[in-house]
Structures are given as structure tokens and as C-alpha cells.
Design brief:
Elements lengths: L1 H16 L1 H4 L11 H6 L14 H9 L13 H13 L9 H9 L13 H7 L4 H5 L27 E2 L3 E2 L4
Antiparallel strand pairs: 1-2
Bound molecules: heme C (2 copies).
């Protein structure tokens, strides 16, 4: 009986220690896959899998030969590994992460966007940014997350950690 109680206590406390069990996380889960970081982080920031739903990643990975006007094709083995990682970590698998949930919820069932920047949630969050701040050479494209989000690599996109080149910190008020 005593040992059973001890086990119950241990199980209980390990759940408390894992904040993801109780607490909501604000951003998206950071990238933790070597092949993905290397292969999908060579031309641009390695976007976290939690930024798009599974069907988007599947569609994107089906057409790497013609990837946003470039060829990003991979060896079949790497492709399989990376697709597997993306699917297992896509937005709908991370309901405790607020941004994954919001992005996923914003996409209609019939839509399969292959760009985070084409999702309704993303568009809404970025609509107030002046065009010239995006087109300036230090940013160049709204897809260049790390130009403005100083903690993007950690999966943290909050207002406090935004610094737009030649503009500075973002204040929504
Ligand atoms: C050869 C260079 C190259 C490689 C390798 C590459 N990409 Fe891209 N990717 C691009 C370009 C160019 C764009 C368009 C960016 C822009 O519009 O500024 C893009 C855009 C994207 C976008 C849309 C960004 C947005 O606006 O939301 C996603 C998602 C993406 N890539 C995922 C991947 C994944 C996953 C891999 C690995 C399988 C990969 N990319 C490998 C060149 C590359
Ligand atoms: C030109 C600068 C710029 C670029 C590039 C940019 N963002 Fe943003 N982002 C902002 C600003 C400004 C906001 C609005 C913050 C606010 O009002 O709370 C924002 C908001 C967000 C939010 C909502 C954060 C929150 O806590 O409300 C997310 C998520 C986000 N961006 C992700 C991305 C991703 C992913 C990329 C790349 C695909 C990207 N952003 C590219 C400037 C940028």
C-alpha cells in the first residue's frame, strides 16, 4: 500500500514538472531534427513544423523540384526522413502551443496553403507592417522571419522580441 502511494506521488509530481501537461506554451515548438535543419535551413530559416498543418507539409514535400521557383529536391531517403519529422510535428500535433493552434484554426478545411505567410492568421498578424519595411534589402521578403523576429529560432514570435530593421521595436498600442 505504501509503495503504491509512493508511485502515485512520483507519477503526480512528474506531470506537474512537465509544464506542457498543464501550461500553455506561447510560441511553436523549436526545430530538433538535424536532417531538417541542414536540408531545409540552407536557403532560408528552417521554419518550425508547428507553423503549418500536416496536409500542407505533405503537399509541399510532393513538389520540391518546383519549390517557390527553385529546385529544392532531395535524395529519397532524406525526403522520407524529413517528411516523417514534419508530419509528426505539424501544427495540429501541438495543441498546447498557442501559435500552432491559431495558425491551424485559421485555415479552412478545404485549403492547403504551402506557405505560412499565406495562412489567414499570419496575414492578419502582419497586415499593419508598412510595405517598404518588408521590401527593404535588410528584410526582402515577409518569409524572412529572422529579419524581424529576433528569437524565431527558439519558436518565439511575441511582440517583445520583434526588431524591424530601420524601424525598431514594434509597439501595437
Ligand atoms: C534551394 C533553396 C531552397 C531549399 C533547399 C528549400 N527552400 Fe523553402 N523556399 C525557398 C524559396 C526561394 C522560398 C520563397 C521565399 C520567399 O518568398 O521569400 C521558399 C519558401 C518556403 C516556405 C514558405 C515560406 C513562407 O512564406 O511561409 C516553406 C514553408 C518552405 N520554403 C519550406 C521548405 C522545406 C520544408 C524545405 C526542405 C525540404 C525547403 N523549404 C528547402 C528556397 C528553398
Ligand atoms: C518585417 C518584419 C517581420 C517579418 C519578416 C515577419 N514578421 Fe511576424 N510579426 C511581425 C510583427 C510586426 C508582428 C505583430 C506583432 C504584434 O502586433 O503583436 C508579427 C507577428 C507574428 C506572430 C504573432 C505573434 C504574437 O505573439 O502575436 C507570429 C506567430 C509571427 N509573426 C510569425 C512570423 C513568421 C513565422 C515569419 C516568417 C515566415 C514572420 N513572422 C515574418 C514582423 C515580422
Amino acid at each position: 500500500m505504501r509503495s503504491l502511494m509512493l508511485i502515485a506521488l512520483l507519477v503526480g509530481s512528474s506531470l506537474v514538472a512537465d509544464s506542457s501537461f498543464w501550461g500553455e506554451k506561447r510560441g511553436v515548438a523549436p526545430v530538433n531534427n538535424e536532417a531538417y535543419s541542414v536540408e531545409c535551413g540552407s536557403c532560408h530559416f528552417a521554419y518550425q513544423p508547428g507553423l503549418l498543418p500536416e496536409r500542407s507539409w505533405v503537399k509541399l514535400m510532393q513538389n520540391l523540384e518546383n519549390h517557390f521557383d527553385t529546385d529544392a529536391s532531395l535524395e529519397p531517403e532524406d525526403k522520407k526522413k524529413i517528411l516523417d519529422y514534419l508530419v509528426k510535428n505539424s501544427a495540429e500535433k501541438f495543441t498546447q502551443y498557442k501559435r500552432s493552434r491559431k495558425i491551424n484554426k485559421s485555415i479552412s478545411r478545404g485549403e492547403t496553403p504551402i506557405a505560412i505567410s499565406q495562412t489567414p492568421y499570419f496575414i492578419k498578424e502582419h497586415r499593419e507592417i508598412r510595405r517598404d519595411l518588408i521590401t527593404q534589402k535588410e528584410v526582402n521578403s515577409i518569409s524572412n522571419c529572422t529579419a524581424c523576429h529576433t528569437t524565431a529560432h527558439k519558436g518565439i514570435y511575441g511582440e517583445r522580441d520583434i526588431n524591424i530593421p530601420n524601424y525598431g521595436r514594434w509597439d501595437d498600442d
